[in-house]
Amino acid sequence: MIVVYGIKDNLNPIKAKLSDVIHGCMQSVLGIPEDKRAHRFVPLNNEDFYYPVGRTDAYTVIEINLMTGRKQETQKALIKAIFQSIESELNIAPIDIEITIKEQEPYQWGFRGMTGDEAKDLKYKVNV
């Protein structure tokens, strides 16, 4: 699951395109299937979103939640692909993007009535 935070006046107009860009990177780097998009957008008022000096109102935070298993090189490739794609597709400079990957053990995920370690029918690989 991916959660994206930003100032609503800037985030709302680009949500669909940003979702496409992020999911495209998830597909190309992690092999996530087209139908496995789980994105949540949190548009905030200016007074509810504090960010570092030197950033603009385009500042966007992307939290990527994954089951453990992806190699360090794979995770770094994903982060770099997202930076590059957002800059080229949405014209948002990397200085205005923050990406964090949060990993949890498969048993800490719950979906379709089971935990992640019980799922034997995933259409993508976790250990890449």
UniProtKB/TrEMBL annotation:
Pfam families: Tautomerase_2. It comes from the Bacteria. This is Tautomerase family protein. It comes from Candidatus Marimicrobium litorale.
